[in-house]
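Our consortium's second objective concerns turning raw sequence data into structural hypotheses that experimental partners can test. To show how far this objective has progressed, the report includes one record in full. It was chosen at random from the queue rather than selected for favorable results. The single chain below, 330 residues long, was entered without modification.
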Amino acid sequence: MQETIVFSKGFSYHAANMLGEGRISPEEVEALAPRIRQAAAGVEKIRKEGWAKNHLSKDGNPEPIFFPRLPYPGSDSPNTPELLRKLADWGAKARAEEDAVVFCGVGGSYLGGKVLYDCCTSGYWAGQTAASRPEIFFAGNNVDPEDAEGIRIRLEAMARACREKQGRRLRVLLVPISKSGTTLEPTAAFLYFYSLLQDQGDLFQVDGTVVTDERMEQGPLNRLARKHGWPMFDVPNGVGGRFSVLSTPGMIVGAVLGMDLPELLRGAREMDQACRGDSLDTNPALLNAVLKFLGARDHGAVTEVFMPYAMRLKALGEWYVQLLAESLGK
């Protein structure tokens, strides 16, 4: 078993500090070999069939597992070519017409998009040039009034400057993201900003786009989109919130940023293909899972620290906490 797996782009997974004397031994890993092969086969079956035994939705009903298909656009993927074109066109329109975009999501629908934003740009650069428009804000991951107040102050300052310099209202696009349309935190954030901006019609021109389950025709966001003629993007079936960064809740952020969405998915395909098979010498995801399992079960290693030494990766650490807790903690 190798201590380091190097990917084609030069990144590496380095596990030497978990292996060796007093740590996890090759013998411990070898004893787990039948279960490792079983786990790899189970994951491959989920990829092919889209189902897993006893996997249920939040309402307790059997639910498919389609997130492994996200990197592979096509008719059997949640990411169809038509959706990618729609997102690209919508993003181009938002960049051309809007001054600010406020995304209102929670969990993966907030943190995944924030990771894309941080990796693609920076809050320090926003608004400095015409090309950097619109300025992007994230709300709804909690009900922190101080954070909402900070966004309000910034929007009002932008609006006053826009009126003084250009003689027009600030164009703000609100994007609530909720599969049910009733999730407390993003709903509260959306309603707060929608009411605030509507009440100051002399300063703001408000528009909206909703990301929700299109099948819930009577859902509040669905009805709101129909009432105002707002664009609507579907939260795909079989894609849990923590895996949604490569579907509409995450890629709508990428679309506003002007990211090349097919290239983003190509990178995801490369990573997905690197994480196949039952060889610990080539599959970093499998090796990572094996070492964490053995570390927790046999060595008391039950605490994980994720520490990115770069501010633009800060949201990645926050997202990883949510991914780990929601995937394993439940």
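The partners drew two points from this record. The chain has eleven helices and eight strands. Residues 197 and 204 are 6 Å apart (CA to CA). Both points have been shared with the crystallography group to help prioritize constructs.
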